[in-house]
User: Fold this.
Amino acid sequence: MNAVEQFLTQLQGQLRVRGAARRRVLRECRDHLEDAAAQVGPQEAVRRFGAPDALAAAFDIEVAAGRTQRSTAAACVGVLAVAASTLALVNGASAGASAVPLWAVVFFAAAQTAAVSAVLAAVQAAGMRHAPAAPADMALLCRRNAAALMFAALTLFAAGAAVPGQGGAVSLLAGPTAAGLAIIAVLRTRSLVRRLPSGRSRVRRLPLTDVAAILAPSTPNMAHRTLLLPSTLLATASAFVWDHTDGGTATSSLTSASIEAALVIAGYLALGPALGLRPSRHGRRPGAEPV
Amino acid sequence: MLGACLPPTDPIPSVSVYREVMRAELLRGHLEGLLLAVLADQPGHGYALTQRLAERSGGELAVPEGSLYPALQRLERRGWVASSWEVVDGRRRRVYEMAPAGRRAGSGAALEWQRFAAVVDQVMGSLA
Assistant:
């Protein structure tokens, strides 16, 4: 086995990426080494090409970064498609039907969680587009995408349970189909990212960090606690106004606002570590910023 | 007389070491800009781009040739470069060409380098 074949065998053993991307990497490296070997000999060609382990690591990161961006786009499309299907379902509800209260609460909670997760994912993907991608950050993006799709699916289910009705098959199935394809892309990306070094670590990544990367470096990077308070106040005020303009009494509006505040805080406590909004107790990445 | 028999020594032995370290660091930080510069002339496959880079730099910029490919994939992910399989000299190769967004990014990279070089020159000029 000459030096080029030996190198390619080592590179194959080090690469974690699979499928068409792997075949492309190996093909391009082989073509390059054959051209170089024809000029300077196989030993020198391999020496000039670089170390196979470093090269494999660089390829894995780049393929994972590309898949992460594409799966985020698929997840956003999936969430929007499910939202459209949910609207179609709600509009097709039986005339005079009143919503089952528990499912109505689940519906609103799941819808907001899906929307927040999708926005966090989209903003993070935009912020990471021109920056070096770390496996831990890619893992976080996969979790945000998965959360957005799962809660979008729960929203659709809760809508059907809250106000049973009927609708066209295409409009009702388009959302779940798009979400199903998106979750496959997200899981495939997650599978690759978890095989990378520190791909299983949990990190905290504030949305304003990504906003600053997109817009202007001078955007203040507020601590996670200050993000929770304005978010809770905004959600609570919105719930109060929504209920009040819907004909609710002051008492019912206050009740809605209280439930909304409780759900926001509970969501932050329960999902904060998974969505990278607050530190988790386990799996902190070495060198991550102290909280 | 004994000194005349000894091989000549570099009066500042650390210069060559410093040059190698600096070159490696600069290449790492500006590889994408360099790739955009060689792609600006015409499309090419990876090996051709390596040759073009070595030729234009007079052999001064010697990157680990394999490192070009992850960098090219990064440029492609950002939409600055596009690639496709084409037949070159009877062989099927992955050929890269610059996208319109890449031209703008390349100009930006060149300007950034000029500013950086001017600042470093300003600070280090007195040492030369």
Summary: The interface with chain B takes residues 24-25, 27-29, 31-32, 35-36, 48-51, 54-55, 58-59, 61-63, 65-66, 69, 129-130 of chain A (CB under 8 Å).
